[in-house]
Amino acid sequence: MKINFINRKVVISFNDKSIKKSLNFYNKHGVLVVTIFTSILSFISILVSYKYDIILAYNDSRAHMNMARLVFDNLKPGFAQLGGVWLPFPHIMILTLVWNDWLWQSGIAGSIYSMSFYVLSSIYIFKLLRFLIKDKVTVFICTLNYVINVNLLYMQSTPMTELTLIFFFITSVYYLLQWVNTKKVLHMILLALSVFLATLTRYDGWMQFLTTLTVLIIVEFMEFKTNFRKNNFGSIIKSILLNAKMRSTILFFSVMAGLGILLWILWNYLIFDDPIYFAVGPYSARAQQFAIESAGKLFTKHNIALSLSAYWWAVSDNVGIIVLLTGIIGFICFVMENPNKYTKIVLLTLFSPAIFHIASLYLGSSVLVLPEMNINVAEGLKGTLFNARYGLIMLPAVSVFMAYFARRSVFAKSIVFFVVIFTPLMMLKDNYIITLTDGKMGSSSLRVKDVSEWLKQNADDSNELILTALSYNSALSFSTGFPLSRFIHEGTGKYWESSVVDPDQYADWIVMANGDVGDPLYDSLIKKHDSQFLRNYELKKRFEFIDVYVKKYVPDDFVYVRDSGFWMNGDRYKFLGVNSYDLIFRSPNEVASTLSSAKNNGIDVVRVWVFGEGSENLIQPEPGKYNSILMNNVDYVLATAYKLDMKVILVMSNYWEAYGGIRQYLRWVDLPDQSASDLDAFFTDSRTKDIYKDFIREIVLRKNSLTGELYKNDPAIFSWELMNEPRSSSTGTAGKVTEWIDEMSSFIRTLDKYHMITSGHEGHFSDFSINPYATGPFIDQFGHKSDFDALSGHYYIDQYISEKPLYEFEIIDKWSDHAKEIDRAFFIEEIGFSKRSGENSGYDRLFLYEKLFESAKKNDVQGVIVWNWALKIDDDFGISPLDPNDEKLIKLLNLYSKSLK
Amino acid sequence: MKFLSTLYIFIITLLLISLLTKGVRSNIMPSDVYSLKDYSQPFELSPERGRYALTQSIVENHSLFLPLEIAGYVTPDLGYINGNFVSLFAPGVSFVVIPFYYIGKYFNANQLFTFWSVGLAAVINAYIISDIVNRITKSGFGYIAGLSFIFATSALAYATTLYQHHFTTLIILLALHITIFSNNTNNSLLMGVLFGVMLLIEYPAVIFLLPIILVYMFRHYCSLQNKESFKISIDSRIMLFILYVFIGIIPTLIYNSYVNTNPFKLSGTVESVENININNNGSGYEIIKGETDEFKKSVGGFFKYENIANSWYILLLSSERGILFYSPLYLLTILIFNLKNKISDIEKYPFYLLVSINFAVLLLYGMWGDPWGGWAFGPRYLIPFFAFSSILLGIVFKYYAYSHWFKLSYFTLLVYSILINVAGALTTNAIVPSKEAESALMPTIKYLYNFELIGFGKSSSFIYNTYFSKYIPLTVFYILIIAIIVFLLFLANKMSSDKISHEN
């Protein structure tokens, strides 16, 4: 460039040669120029996206990364993890890079391919335009329109599939055009390959296959008709069918390009036993749309006007309204002027994305929401924006057709050039990049960051498994950064199948939707199985859309229920126990001897009564007043049990009169206490309940005077037992007792999170099979909903009627079957046989105990507590280590206990 | 003869506009304004109040800041800065009409004369349009084009009240005239002055002026050669021209500096006042503030690309402001694109310029967040667009003048457009936009409301209300005006026919 000053004029001269040289370079190496320019733009875009942390703004982008990663980072790795809904090609590509944790978590493992396809698609747009439009300036302007579209630049920075699809879409149009004009086999092969890969990328590609095939047929027919002289319609048809060239073209393309569709259907059939699983399966778009339609929000279904409007706005927001209008003007020019009929038909395939999306919207298999539609499918901005990016696929069409307007004159070029530059600048100025807004704020982004951050901090133990539906929470699982092998999800086979029913076996955490929004885990655990999982899990954190549950934490050495059994420290805890009901009234020496003798003979659990009402020498002489000596005795029992590594069941009240019982409660509140029906009032009167609760509170929150341990933290306690043998006066009032049990269980739970709670009920069945005189409550009415932890049974011969011999212990079978049926833990809490054989229906006591333990083993009963262990010798049900007559029995107990270990 | 005919046409035009001018016969003081804010009254909308307020403040109080009694009637277009009330409008219009305020004050009609000045500007616009068309096409079709602009568009409704549009249009038309027809650089200073005045009158409109200034600059100071090598010659006197343009900015900078405390702070970006509550004893007042979003109040925040689709729909197609309903005559402008290969070289140059400016107008107001123009009659922001389109229409008319279907279409649409726009000018501009709740009370096709008012005899015309309302119904008055306009058109058509036969 030269600048001269001549006659008051500044003359700027440009070396014509260098300008021409530059133009020649551009003319000869246009592809190289486009490659370099778009590579720079691509690189800048990814840097900006990385800096502002928007590469993975879309939840789907994270799901795509996961889809690839799951092939190897999984509880059940394998290619089947590629799934059956999203087409596999993008994930196969991402698979090559996603092994690297940084590439995976940053999203760049997917972005790299989007970026590559952005550059390649730009090259092909340039080539397509250069082929169609000879005017170089127009080609430059319209290529520029494509490459600097801000939505395209953003999407090419993400692992989404748009750029992959657009690339194959453009190449298919380009090679179709080449084939039509040159008839070279290579072009047909590349055309078929483009469509083949498009069909394996997105379902839009299937429409591309259809439109391309249709165009091929039309072109072949037109060529054929041109060369065919006869006008007879029948002859024409016959000749078409016999024309080898036409047949071979159509056949070749159909097979090669359609192979992708065929392979996908075959894949679905092989993996999911359903060739159209992708369309009708539980994770398909149809299932997703079903949930939306149920909420009455699938507005475009069967509404052609709204479907058209929706897609119009999608395209307008992505490419820019003025650019779109310029494209429409260009299309009108194209229709009016282009003399090449083949080109006209081929370029109509550029509309196939529009046809696909409008049809999908109309049929209700797609959702598209833009702010201009004034529709809100959810709250706030999120409900006004969904899948806005679908309009971006029409950018190639707009770029091509606007060329037909631009080439008409220099003035038209100027207008188009201005529009092309102006639009992205204004979009950037207004920060109105619709695809980015959709990713960040629209319905395409469920805000998972807060949940994932919380999980990172609270669920970071790599040994713990997290149960979640990846079809709903893929983005969330990705965002945690945890290895995907920590997740139990739909693709993990038995882990998933088991966990959606009873997660307790594998899952330490559960992450699921907190509403009926289509989360399959919610559908199973909450709706289908009635929230049974809450027995073993507690709600740890509630977020806006997600709830996080954690397996209930039990301190070391605490016994807890899991999988219908007792556990401690992660191992099964089956036990032999004894009742020693009056232990708290014994001296410390006797307590120590009683417990140590029991322990030495294989007994691990002792059931002790810690109630007593209405007398000064009982534990609660008056309401709220407690006998400190007896309380200290309880301390001693617990301290000793702890030293001996034994567990204690503390019984908190008595239905019967011994030691006061509920009758005393009634007397305290001036209620009658004589008849059985009078006793029902205990379970309903608020005053008796308050006195009871005060006592519970006193005990549960008590601090052991010897060990300094709070009872609620004491591992020596096996469980809190609400009452010894609670009963109702009639079957009609059984519900009141059940309600009382639930109420008091919940109350204790508020004081003590970890110890088990047992009800103390006797295990009568409502068919009166154990006790024909039973009045309730019945074990088969507790079901799985009650708040206490384990079912119990009390067995005494005189209460039992059976057709089978007594020693077969039919009742134990019945108890065990029932417990398994409702999936609850069960133990025999009281069982004993008299020393007087006449009271055992003639059977020897030892024999009965032998048979008892046989039956318990056969039924895998979790615990047996016999009645009654004490040092003193009696002639009744007692078992004493000091009684020589009990020696064999005690050995039997020992043997049984060992067999449990 | 031709000169006399031309004079008759534009004098009659001015008289017609005078018949429609909104006003009352008396010197309007601040307290009077409050009683003139109803439908079909001169101060029915805030833009006229806002501009009038500054004029009144300058003349009566010799201040650029608005005293409390004036500020009270300006809300919500009132600004507040450093304890002073200021107008949120660019001050240019208020300055330009000061002489008319003075003259009017002498005749006890300050408001009436002030408003009438806009009509004068409108007539001058029509004249310039006709002159441009006649000179470009070497025909007499300019008269029809000029009259179409005045009577067949919303230009008429805003020629009778105190808005900026006709002053804006006047400046652009003057600049256009100079650019197209000037063969030397003698008008460079004038171009700079025009630029400066435009900046004072309406900030966004300088964007329309810029292409004209650039074309003027390149036409007179630059030349291109592309023979042996690519050369651009730039006359060094271009610096003087650029200097004139920059000097034109100075008055705006001074005004902003004094009133808004910052030379670069535009009037519309000052913190606005929604309302003023005066204490019962009149000792003080409380201001209720308006829009506080800084970005929305910034220059960039007013214009957004995403507004275009909605704005173009409103301005072009909607029944409440669209050209399709208010001035469908201008749809015929599209025929200009069919003439691209037929029009002469001298016509091509303004064709490109006008199409570019029209595009700029549509683009700018497309991005504006309020295409309705608030409560307004028709697409008032497109008045400059109508002016340029009238020139294009004049060119179209020349080439299609002998086509009967074109003439039929043209005059049918012209009469329709006149009927609509005269109804608006005669009654009210206070037509609520659809985004406000009150819109539900008006007909879907908003101009029907104006016809309702005609039926009720409710007019804003000073002449009618003062001299005719007792004798003839408004409907008759309306028909009389239409008849005079049709007569004018007939006269214009005859003049164009005479000119053609004379040249033939």
From TrEMBL, chain A:
<feature type="transmembrane region" description="Helical">
    <location>
        <begin position="209"/>
        <end position="228"/>
    </location>
</feature>
<keyword id="KW-0378">Hydrolase</keyword>
<dbReference type="Pfam" id="PF26410">
    <property type="entry name" value="GH5_mannosidase"/>
</dbReference>
<dbReference type="GO" id="GO:0000272">
    <property type="term" value="P:polysaccharide catabolic process"/>
</dbReference>
<dbReference type="InterPro" id="IPR001547">
    <property type="entry name" value="Glyco_hydro_5"/>
</dbReference>
<feature type="transmembrane region" description="Helical">
    <location>
        <begin position="160"/>
        <end position="177"/>
    </location>
</feature>
<dbReference type="InterPro" id="IPR045053">
    <property type="entry name" value="MAN-like"/>
</dbReference>
<keyword id="KW-1133">Transmembrane helix</keyword>
<protein>
    <recommendedName>
        <fullName>mannan endo-1,4-beta-mannosidase</fullName>
        <ecNumber>3.2.1.78</ecNumber>
    </recommendedName>
</protein>
<keyword id="KW-0812">Transmembrane</keyword>
<feature type="transmembrane region" description="Helical">
    <location>
        <begin position="249"/>
        <end position="267"/>
    </location>
</feature>
<dbReference type="GO" id="GO:0016985">
    <property type="term" value="F:mannan endo-1,4-beta-mannosidase activity"/>
</dbReference>
<feature type="transmembrane region" description="Helical">
    <location>
        <begin position="346"/>
        <end position="368"/>
    </location>
</feature>
<dbReference type="GO" id="GO:0005576">
    <property type="term" value="C:extracellular region"/>
</dbReference>
<feature type="transmembrane region" description="Helical">
    <location>
        <begin position="184"/>
        <end position="203"/>
    </location>
</feature>
<keyword id="KW-0472">Membrane</keyword>
<feature type="transmembrane region" description="Helical">
    <location>
        <begin position="410"/>
        <end position="428"/>
    </location>
</feature>
<keyword id="KW-0732">Signal</keyword>
<dbReference type="GO" id="GO:0016740">
    <property type="term" value="F:transferase activity"/>
</dbReference>
<feature type="transmembrane region" description="Helical">
    <location>
        <begin position="102"/>
        <end position="125"/>
    </location>
</feature>
<feature type="transmembrane region" description="Helical">
    <location>
        <begin position="30"/>
        <end position="50"/>
    </location>
</feature>
<feature type="transmembrane region" description="Helical">
    <location>
        <begin position="310"/>
        <end position="334"/>
    </location>
</feature>
From TrEMBL, chain B:
<feature type="transmembrane region" description="Helical">
    <location>
        <begin position="413"/>
        <end position="432"/>
    </location>
</feature>
<keyword id="KW-0472">Membrane</keyword>
<feature type="transmembrane region" description="Helical">
    <location>
        <begin position="351"/>
        <end position="369"/>
    </location>
</feature>
<feature type="transmembrane region" description="Helical">
    <location>
        <begin position="238"/>
        <end position="258"/>
    </location>
</feature>
<feature type="transmembrane region" description="Helical">
    <location>
        <begin position="85"/>
        <end position="103"/>
    </location>
</feature>
<keyword id="KW-1133">Transmembrane helix</keyword>
<feature type="transmembrane region" description="Helical">
    <location>
        <begin position="471"/>
        <end position="492"/>
    </location>
</feature>
<feature type="transmembrane region" description="Helical">
    <location>
        <begin position="381"/>
        <end position="401"/>
    </location>
</feature>
<feature type="transmembrane region" description="Helical">
    <location>
        <begin position="112"/>
        <end position="129"/>
    </location>
</feature>
<protein>
    <recommendedName>
        <fullName>Glycosyltransferase RgtA/B/C/D-like domain-containing protein</fullName>
    </recommendedName>
</protein>
<feature type="transmembrane region" description="Helical">
    <location>
        <begin position="323"/>
        <end position="339"/>
    </location>
</feature>
<keyword id="KW-0812">Transmembrane</keyword>
<feature type="transmembrane region" description="Helical">
    <location>
        <begin position="141"/>
        <end position="159"/>
    </location>
</feature>
<feature type="transmembrane region" description="Helical">
    <location>
        <begin position="189"/>
        <end position="218"/>
    </location>
</feature>
